[in-house]
Amino acid sequence: MKNILITGGAGFIGSHVVRLFVNKYPNYNIINLDALTYAGNLENLKDVDQSSNYKFEKVNILDADHLKTVFQEHQITDVIHLAAESHVDRSILSPLDFVYTNVIGTVNLLNTAKEFWKDDLSKHLFYHVSTDEVYGALGETGFFTETTAYSPNSPYSASKASSDHFVRAYAETYHLQTVISNCSNNYGPFHFPEKLIPLFINNIINKKPLPVYGDGLYTRDWLYVKDHAIAIDLVFHQGKVNDTYNIGGFNEWKNIDLVKLLCKLMDEKLGRNVGESEQLITYIKDRPGHDRRYAIDATKINTELGWKPSVTFEQGLEETIIWYLENKDWLEHVTSGAYKGYYDNMYSNR
Ligand code: NAD
Ligand code: DAU
Question: What is the whole-number distance in angstroms between the Cα of residue 83 and the centre of ligand 1?
Fold first, then answer.
């Protein structure tokens, strides 16, 4: 019997992790703790929110007292920590928001767990979900492994690197049992349309410009979000304590090639003329500090835990496009209001 606190469970990846755990482990109680920022949306969990092993707590991880109450009320046994500010462009506009949530919020959570579990730390696990961006940028060749030195370039990746270091330090100093995974770019249903793939799907639907940063030759390694959730399940149950696992898609794409593929698939699905959506591509001013290439070497999780992506990129992307076309209400709900202000501000001067 476990009472697992999943933070950030109303966000993109968190909602897939919550859904997987609620459905797969009826004997676990899953407590989703989320502040419901612009990126958190309980609509993402409509299909599981009536389950008897699921509870939601609207709490900000900056509120240490509230965290303590949640640990006590639900007798939390383990944590899977995903809550974060996650968008690089926003971190360039407001770095401090990232320091607060990603660094201070994570330390608050570590402190709460350490205190609450102090009678027997060996029975509990603090799982910290992190990103490949902590390793910085690659050139044309090479891969990030678990031993690659940290070299973060954006306020977002610096804040995530800092949180990873705090998790490691709590394991060394206080003997908290921890595990960290660093994953590449996710895509799939419920992805907030400020990130490349969902933003461009939304803009293609609405025949709006597709703003490609710089020369468009930046490379990312894409992983279907449900495969990330499966990897998190494996690492949580079978990962070595106080170890790190890299998770990636073995699937590198230059942005412009990915955008052209997306345009082609969307034209087919929307019954538009061949090449119609490509005409929306607009090159704009580059993102400052833009990392040239990410690529994960996921050999360790593959050999130790037997994980590999279960779907090809073509399958995952097709499923994703279909999901967005069938869930236009969701898109409309999340793109109204505050998001509109951010979008106009972010792209108007570039
Ligand atoms: P997201 O932005 O979609 O969701 C973040 C969630 O955290 C939201 O539900 C939000 O309401 C919540 N949150 C934010 N600040 C909070 C606070 N102060 N207190 C409580 N809740 C708060 O993010 P995501 O893309 O699902 O990423 C989840 C985690 O995975 C993050 O830690 C991110 O760094 C990491 N990650 C993401 C990717 C990716 O491609 N999206 C890849 C690797 C790692
Ligand atoms: O690598 C993992 C990371 O992937 C996660 O830790 C982050 O939370 C997640 O946001 C993502 O970061 P990126 O910066 O790689 O993702 P984003 O979707 O913002 O951008 C992907 C690429 O597309 C990047 O090279 C920038 C480019 N881009 C992005 C946007 C939003 C554009 O060219 N135009 C755009 O409008």
Answer: 5
